[in-house]
């Protein structure tokens, strides 16, 4: 199980790119990074998480 996040420069206050990763894999196990293009959602749509659903937030 791992958590990964990225914030591109257009989304950070000082224009920095932030990439964070937390993982419990073995030290030499490879990590595959994929890019998932953004999608447009209606304001009534919900994000399906592992155990809950939350409303989309328009930024």
From TrEMBL:
A GO term, aspect molecular function: cysteine-type exopeptidase activity
Residue ranges the record marks as coiled coil: none
InterPro entries: Peptidase_C69
GO terms classed as biological process: proteolysis
Annotated protein name in UniProt: Dipeptidase-like
Organism: Caloramator australicus RC3
């Amino acid at each position: 199980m791992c958590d990964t996040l990225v914030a591109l420069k257009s989304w950070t206050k000082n224009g920095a790119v932030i990439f964070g990763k937390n993982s419990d894999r073995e030290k030499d196990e490879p990590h595959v990074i994929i890019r998932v293009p953004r999608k447009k959602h209606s304001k009534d749509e919900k994000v399906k998480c592992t155990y809950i659903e939350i409303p989309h937030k328009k930024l």
